[in-house]
What we know:
Radius of gyration: 28 Å
Order of helices and strands: HHHEEEHHHH
Number of strands: 3
Largest sheet: 3 strands, antiparallel
Distance between the termini: 37 Å
Amino acid sequence: MFRVLPAIPTELLEQQLRRAVLDLLLADEAIDKDLVAKLLSWQHSGFSVDNQVRIEAGDAQGRQQLARYMIRAPFSVEKTEYKAEPGVIVYRSKQHATLKRNFQIMPGAKWLEMLLQHVPDKGEHLVRYYGWYSNRARGKRKAEMADAETPARVDDGTPEQVDPEASRAARAAWARLIKKVYESDPLVCPHCGGEMRFLAVIEAPPVIERILRHLGLWEPRPPSQGPPDDDWPVNGQIPLTYEPVPAIA
């Protein structure tokens, strides 16, 4: 059940956020207690909190936009351009109010260093769900619904027969998931646009090679290797001097 709570003053949220961040840095031994006490004594906390964004009960589009903002990528590939000769990255975005420009130029290695800060550690989750939306709660509801809708099977000693309708439904679900992820229907012919049928899964390498050679698509690729050292520009190597980069994205 969801209940409407009164808006929490931003001053209280700001103080709680500052305390949580400082406790996290102190636990990781990134700062000491003396520095924490000094930061807490400042008149201005150094943090900014805003809670003015509200989503009404029936605003489905607003909820979708908020979710996209929360899990958005750290940068846009379309806005990124690599200049190979000078070894720099050019990132273009909207006009920055202070810098009066809509781009930022940085060495390639510095860009990689900043990007790696957004790569989560192995097993680390960036989005967490709790309560009604947690994996455990959703799995429990799914199992209860399946138990309620699936009739008990009576074992009469005869071998189990494959239901053609269930098999077709499984194939349809497979195609639907592929279309959802890759935005391409795998059961639509790319030449005539007609519907194709799923016949079999071919896993034997000789058979795969024979089919691809017959279609003129056999192009075996050599094993992937790391780029040679001389391809990386000299001026893109670490160490680099630190230059603050404003958040213009």
